[in-house]
Amino acid sequence: MAFADPQSIKISGTTTSLPRVSTGKGESEYESGDGLIALKASSQYGKRTRRTLRVDSSKITADPFIPAQNVQVSTSCYVVFDIPPAGYTSAELLAIFEGFVEAAKASEFTLIKKLLGGES
Q1: Torsions phi, psi of 102, nearest 5?
Q2: The domain containing residue 100 runs over which residues?
Q3: Same domain as 77, residue 92
Q4: Quick one: 42 and 53 in the same domain?
Q5: Percent composition of the chain: helix, strand, coil (DSSP 3-state, to 5)
Q6: Which residues have a Cβ under 8 Å from the Cβ of 107 and sit 6 or more positions away?
Q7: CATH code, domain carrying 22
Q8: Taking the complete model, does pTM exceed 0.90, yes or no?
Q9: 58: helix, coil or strand?
Q10: Nearby residues of 26 by Cβ (< 8 Å), 6 or more positions away
């Protein structure tokens, strides 16, 4: 079952609508009108279940090697739940995720800022 259509995301204070652009077996993709932001949700089944929520963002910027030219660059941010076939309820998985988010958000995202700066 797919998420509601459209989805939206707020990046740097700007909310962008992301209408659904594709659905498939266990996956859906939502994309901005300009194609620069995408939200992807998927589930894969095997020995373990893997559920992924991913945001891809692209932008046009000056080429660092040829400043007179512009290039498109992109980045991704995602969360993956790697779930065993038994042993965890959805409520337990949500509690773990909430703990993860709280740790990431603590002190104005200090852990994330340090991680992005190369610390571990």
Answers
A1: -65, -40
A2: 88-120
A3: no
A4: yes
A5: 20, 50, 30
A6: none
A7: 3.30.380.10
A8: no
A9: strand
A10: 42, 43, 44, 45
Q: Which helix (H) or strand (E) holds 83?
A: strand 70-83
Total structural domains within the chain: 2
Cα-based distances in Å from 108 to 9, 13, 71: 19, 16, 32
Say whether both 58 and 20 belong to one domain: yes
Are residues 58 and 15 part of one domain? yes
Supply 17's token pair. 């609508």
Bond into 6 cis (ω within 30): yes
Residues 114 and 58 in one domain: no
Residue 65: the pLDDT is: 92
Mean pLDDT by 10 residues, the chain (120 residues): 91 97 96 97 97 97 92 96 96 97 95 95
pLDDT at 5: 96
* Cβ atoms 51, 83 nearer than 8 A: yes
